[in-house]
Amino acid sequence: xxxxxxxxxxxxxxxxxxxxxxxxxxxxxxxxxxxxxxxxxxxxxxxxxxxxxxxxxxxxxxxxxxxxxxxxxxxxxxxxxxxxxxxxxxxxxxxxxxxxxxxxxxxxxxxxxxxxxxxxxxxxxxxxxxxxxxxxxxxxxxxxxxxxxxxxxxxxxxxxxxxxxxxxxxxxxxxxxxxxxxxxxxxxxxxxxxxxxxxxxxxxxxxx
Length: 208
Known about the structure:
CATH topology of the largest domain: Immunoglobulin-like
Strand order of the largest sheet: 2-9-8-4-6
Structural class: alpha+beta
Number of domains: 2
Number of strands: 9
CATH class of the largest domain: Mainly Beta
Strand content: 25-35%
């Protein structure tokens, strides 16, 4: 009597999932051993279309008995929520798309005020010279020149005070966190163990 050998393998099943864009959700992957299968399964997960600004997390799963084993697939639909190092490459791409660049230090805004203050200071110096010349010839003209000098100095002082406030920079607007596009995705889950036993299943993912 010939007894057919039963291949040692595993079967996969997974539940569908709906996740609000910007949030995360979980689905259960069930591994059912057959033919006395045991082993540790590593996973690869992909989607069609690609889940841009999102990622998947599914830890290695060990089957050591005859009963089905479950694993938790986590779907992240915001790049900032993806655990490292899965988010490393996506983060660099997001910065390029958003056009994030070096911010201005705000020093350039102070240059026009500094120029005005320099002109006012020059006018004050010229007034002092004029006061010295006129004071020798006429007391009345000297008083008028002194009054003009005080006015110019007052304008210079107010310009300095105003310039100090203008040099401060306002807070930049907050940048929105990149999130996955809403829609339907087909997620492909492939499990492979050390003996190269491989099984694949698919899951319907809705991002709304």
